[in-house]
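Q: Is it fine to ask for two folds in a single conversation?
A: Yes, each is treated on its own. Send the first.
Q: Here.
A: Result:
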Amino acid sequence: MSEQLSGILPLILIMVAMFAVMIIPQRRRDKKVKEMLGNLKPGDRVRTIGGIYGTISAIKDDVVYLVVGPDKVRLVFTKGAISTVEDVAVENEMSEEVKELQ
């Protein structure tokens, strides 16, 4: 009996270690993302998971309305598509280099 227990004990310890290394940090990240999405408000500058920068104009349930670019194009996303809230405002104007390409 003790021989079987000594064979299973290292396996159990490895499983506990894997849980601590992999699952716990992921839960912390998920909690931060959920908190960030819960604190979104109109006027926040955000980046979507597709790399689009915009300003939140309205939020209704799980839908976020963004205003993007100098033409104030209105785009609709789900909250899950918001990657980050930007601390520094990104300019809503085209640079001279972009204007020359048009």
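Q: Second one now.
A: Result:
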Amino acid sequence: MAASRSLSRRVIIAIVVVCAAAICVPAVWSASSGPGGRPASARLDGATGIDAAQDGAVPGASTADFTRDVDPFVGSSAGGDTFPGATLPFGMAQPSPDTTSKPAGGGYAYSDKKILGFSAVHVSGPGCPSLGHVSLMPVTGKVRSTSAAGYASSFSHRTETARPGYYAVSLLRYGTKAEMTATERTAWERFTFPRRARTQRQVLLNLGAAQDKTSAANLTIAGPDTVTGSQSTGVFCDPGYRPVTVYFAARFSRPFAATGTWNNGPVNWRGGKSARGTAIGAALRFAGGARQVTARIGVSYTSAADAAANLAAETPHGGGFDAVRARAHRTWRQWLDRIAATGATARQRVTFYTALYHSLIEPNVFSDDNGRYLGMDGKIHTASGRAEYTNLSLWDTYRTQAELLDLIAPDIARDIILSLVSDTRELGWVPRWVLANTETNTMSGDSVTEMFADALAAGIVTPAEVRPVYPYLKKNATEAAPPATHEDGRQGIASYRARGYVPYDPSSQQYFLKSGASATLEYALADCGLSHIAGTLGHQGDEKDFAASAHNYRSEFDPSTRTFRPRRPDGSFLKPFSPSFLSLPYVPADARGYDEGSALQYRWLVPQDTSDLARLLGGRSAAVGDLDRLFDFGRVAARPGDAAGAWTGGGRYDPGNEPDLQAPYTYDALGAPWRTQAVVRAARTVYRPAPGGLPGNDDLGETSAWYVMSAVGLYPYAPGQETYALTTPLFRRAVVALPGPRSRGRPLVITTDGGGGYVRGLTQDGRGVGTAWLGRPALAGGGTLAYRTQAGPDRSWGAGPSAAPADYCGG
């Protein structure tokens, strides 16, 4: 889901040291310094990136440790909804601070002044509240409040440190330093109390604090240094459905000197060793000599026993917090090395590696160390030979992040697809947006079909592995979901099948019918993918059927406005109608025919048959003209740095929202690739190394993955299609690791000659390439793409209809 953009700049200063109470904390990454504490304008590369004229940064020397080029604070403001805390790639645990405004998903807002606590699990970049379970807060002195707001502490960005796998901050109210790191399924939180507080050093465990309302919780002080329990909360954008329960086992490095519990009131130091309710917690006091206390928190979605088992399995022998932190750093370094890029400015490198970092946080491991996980049917299952994954924001990630994982993490991508196979069979229907073991029914369309189509095209899974879910995919595409189920399925499917469109009906209780025009476009795109799945599995009749319905968008095309216009149940077009009307997320409740977008933006959601789209618009030249108006092309081509201003309002291109993410690459499909190169160059300037540096919600890596793919110059224009659209790479050299047998260890090396932002020639392993497209199979074995570039546009390279690729579902 999208969010508003912030274009404020950060002031560049050097390393600072701030003393709060008795603690002086060096700001290794401060709010206004670059990664590792160096100024953000420090020299990093010897060559200048192609966007440098707009970026204004200074190039410098290269470094091999790309974790230094990651700023976890990016996206923590202006609705990006990311979190700065610690995690491993795709990890189950994400210990991170929660601040007073409780922003959706990440739990942390850069503009907030107080921290409520540090919870063990988070989601990066969604648009609805999610997780935030098992909150700890170190405090000193008498506990006067058990409300998180009551014991919250102020903090300063100048004492914050955030690096991949590590976070630290000084709590000014208590003079206490809090540090976070993580293993795959455990959160590690180390608290260093001030020397002056020799008594009443406590950690508060609050199971009433979370991003959504706690519906049930329990805890037991299970030993002299251990607390176990669980916390259940509402679910994302659908809080009324089955709750998400997180089990935990927290073991502390020192024994408790005293313990107390509370239940919607003050701490009872003489009470029992357990509590149950919706506003419960525990106060854990440590002896006066215990200046430093580390909490190790195993988490699980199956049981407290499995949480304890995860903790035991992932606790290093003979090592503590620092050993785990070092391991987390090594893990992130190895993952970020999968794209080794050089030859850009300092700011561009931080923007790129932060985007790659955010692209690798979700989906999350859902199975325990022993393979057990809670299925969509509410039963315990065991993942054998693989991991089960959850937190699948499919409406977002099928467009960008899924394809990035196909490229650089095919083993993870495979497990994600097999997890969707399990989800579908357990649910009895296809999912759309999975949180834990719950279908949230968030957003529209049929994104899971695109996920399966793309995985088949990329060779991530075999036809035999997809075959068991095909009946569910077909049923979802042809029938309404049973009324007794929670799943929405394809709302409006009867009209879509019979009349070719989902009607716009503002009086309906079904959200898709309030966004009927965009639902029609989404269904048609999914039908294209489903036709390819059917063909691969040998269902030729279905292949033909869905290839035909992949063109149902024609039923909503209005020649008078040159847009896909909502139709009412009686078949008439919506009146009055404004193509530039922008439907924001769930506001208003009547989306006026479009889900998070305008008619101008959704006009381009036909990547399956761009030739047909051009025909509807009056030909390729007319279509290019319409695209030019969407982007305000003359302005952004001449001044790429003006992109944010040019695209604000009027229903124009939104680089941070899903419906038109692929729109810049439509020029490639129309035979005008130099225009793609100009617009992508402008869009990259909207991403910045700053808290407000994302153009919208990161949506579990979807927004960041757009930047990563566009920076290396390979973009999945039509999900499921075996081609990449090309654009000028950002870097002088990028070495993309290609794990898996097809590459035989050979990477994909992408180079440019530094001549400018426009392509004048391209070779693949020395052979000339005259198109702005390359097939995935041709790149799967690695090799070298060498771009020749120039400062001005080359209107001949890759140009004309003959250079365009075959349409994914042409006909």
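Q: Anything structural to flag on that second result?
A: Two points. Residues 2-49, 52-62 have pLDDT under 50 and may be disordered. The two ends are 32 Å apart (CA to CA).
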